[in-house]
């Protein structure tokens, strides 16, 4: 097992399980037997998913599970009561709070057969197997472009060859922050080897010293960040999680807003998230002071192109300050935009990746104090994954809804997930039950925050506004619809 994957395996603790949990909402054509067939022929064609993680004194390794039984990993369940979203959220929350069996491969699929909106598949996969980018690829390998295509079940290798030339999803996923990851790993896991190269090749000394100096400076800045303030969103954790998700929002609305405000879609979504948390705190008697901030750790993809279709973890983390104390929604957008630009120019992500590799190499006793130190500097994990923008089919049924929840490490008790798929934006939240017992109360504020931005964008002076005619027309129609 790689050192970074070992670090994620060791992060598991009762208050924060290291699982990526997701749901796939399907139409009624998808059956349990079809899903079982897809898992057998496509998912298990990836050898790693037949293996279990084994921890030893010297590290961790992968080992084939000789007693593997597929029905222990692909289960058929029914919800109690009305079997609506409330019951489904409770079921997913229970799964997100329950550890996977460490004596077996660390993944499960639950086929919920009686949900009112159609069958739902709930997935749980331990983070040590792969990061979100890799798991998007795994998910796509299970899907088809039409219901009819399901009949021709193919394995992932054939799927990769067929779709590699036509899909732009991976190009968009792999675009940010490719550079620097190899050197970050060298510095942390092969420092002595690199030092010997410098000795043998003195002409490289200045290059290495300059790079090392910059990485050390970034690491020092991250470690010396003040701890995040103690708010109602940060405190002592329990062992139970609650999940919630919002009705999808048309991606075109968010794109129009981003054009009108001359920023990115990501900036608009993160500003709306910040506004939702601010509104929730105000409603519960906690008024963020002007200028107050909380931080989110944001995963940044570092996967080199040659490893684009492999499992494992190839991402770093950056600390993004969210302007919680800013009451003006437009100002929040621009502050988020400025901070994102600063982070994109930094090497925080590669430093974090290298640090995880170093922690995976060292004794497990050192890892928890180091992660606790870093987790005190943030209140939440925030991730945004651009998914495919065409409809997909799983086990013969159309995928209507997609959502996932990221794990949190150390003392972080909140995880925000944003996913775009088939022209829609899906927004989800996972929260420690002791901190936020009803995450739906935050989720329900997300759409109003976007609507506030829409109104305010229309009030900006037209002259000199960096807004296309298409975006302007769309915003006018959207405001009329809201009225």
Strand content: 15-25%
List how many beta strands DSSP finds.
16
Helical content band: 40-55%
Structural class: alpha+beta
Identify the strand order in the major beta sheet.
4-5-6-1-14-13-7
Cα-to-Cα separation, first versus last residue = 56 Å
Low confidence ranges:
159-196, 466-472
Q: How many strands, what sense, and barrel or not for the largest sheet? A: 7 strands, mixed
Radius of gyration: 23 Å
Task: Describe the protein in words.
With 483 residues, this protein is of the alpha+beta class. It contains 17 helices and 16 strands. It has helices at 3-10, 32-43, 85-96, 132-142, 156-163, 169-174, 181-189, 191-200, 205-223, 251-260, 265-283, 329-344, 348-361, 364-375, 440-443, 446-459, 469-482, and strands at 19-26, 51-56, 59-64, 74-77, 107-112, 120-126, 143-144, 241-245, 249-250, 294-301, 315-322, 380-386, 393-394, 397-405, 414-421, 424-432. A seven-stranded mixed sheet has the order 4-5-6-1-14-13-7, sandwiched between helices. Strand 15 and strand 16 form a beta hairpin. The longest helix has 19 residues, at 205-223. The protein is globular and about 60 Å long.
List keywords for this structure.
alpha+beta; 7-stranded mixed beta sheet; 483 residues; single chain
């Amino acid at each position: 097992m790689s050192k970074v994957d070992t670090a994620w395996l060791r992060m598991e603790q009762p208050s924060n399980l290291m699982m990526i949990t997701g749901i796939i909402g399907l139409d009624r054509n998808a059956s349990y037997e079809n899903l079982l067939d897809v898992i057998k022929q496509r998912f298990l064609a990836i050898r790693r998913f037949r293996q279990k993680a084994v921890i030893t004194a010297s590290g961790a390794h992968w080992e084939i599970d000789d007693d593997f039984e597929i029905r222990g990993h692909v289960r058929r369940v029914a919800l109690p009561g009305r079997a609506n979203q409330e019951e489904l959220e409770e079921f997913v929350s229970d799964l997100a709070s329950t550890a996977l069996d460490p004596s077996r491969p660390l993944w499960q699929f639950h086929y919920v057969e009686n949900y009112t909106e159609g069958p739902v598949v709930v997935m749980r996969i331990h983070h040590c197997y792969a990061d979100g980018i890799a798991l998007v690829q795994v998910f796509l390998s299970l899907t088809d472009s039409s219901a009819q295509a399901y009949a021709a079940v193919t394995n992932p290798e054939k799927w990769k060859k067929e779709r590699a030339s036509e899909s732009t999803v991976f190009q968009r996923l792999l675009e940010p922050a490719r550079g620097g990851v190899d050197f970050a790993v060298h510095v942390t896991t092969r420092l002595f080897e690199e030092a010997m190269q410098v000795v043998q090749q003195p002409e490289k000394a200045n290059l290495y010293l300059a790079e090392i100096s910059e990485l050390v400076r970034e690491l020092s800045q991250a470690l010396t960040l003040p701890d995040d303030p103690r708010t109602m969103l940060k405190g002592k954790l329990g062992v139970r999680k609650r999940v919630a998700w919002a009705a999808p929002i048309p991606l075109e609305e968010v794109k129009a807003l981003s054009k009108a405000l001359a920023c990115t879609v990501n900036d608009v979504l993160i500003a709306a998230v910040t506004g939702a948390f601010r509104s929730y705190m105000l409603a519960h008697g906690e008024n963020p002071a002007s200028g107050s901030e909380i931080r989110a750790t944001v995963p940044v993809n570092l996967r080199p192109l040659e490893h684009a279709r492999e499992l494992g973890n190839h991402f770093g983390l950056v600390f993004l300050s969210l302007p919680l104390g800013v009451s003006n929604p437009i100002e929040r957008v621009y502050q988020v935009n400025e901070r994102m630009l600063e982070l994109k120019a930094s090497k925080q992500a590669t430093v974090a990746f290298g640090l995880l590799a170093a922690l995976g190499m060292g004794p497990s006793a050192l890892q928890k104090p180091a992660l606790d130190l870093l987790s005190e500097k943030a209140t939440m994990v925030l991730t945004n994954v651009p998914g495919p923008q065409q409809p997909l089919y799983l086990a013969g049924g159309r995928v209507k809804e997609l959502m996932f929840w990221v794990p949190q490490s150390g003392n972080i008790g909140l995880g925000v997930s944003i996913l775009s798929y088939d022209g829609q934006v899906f927004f989800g939240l996972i929260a420690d039950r002791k901190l936020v017992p009803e995450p739906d109360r935050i989720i329900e504020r997300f759409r109003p925050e976007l609507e506030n931005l829409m109104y305010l964008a229309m009030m900006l002076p037209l002259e000199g506004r960096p807004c296309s005619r298409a975006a302007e027309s769309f915003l006018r129609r959207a405001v009329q619809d809201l009225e």
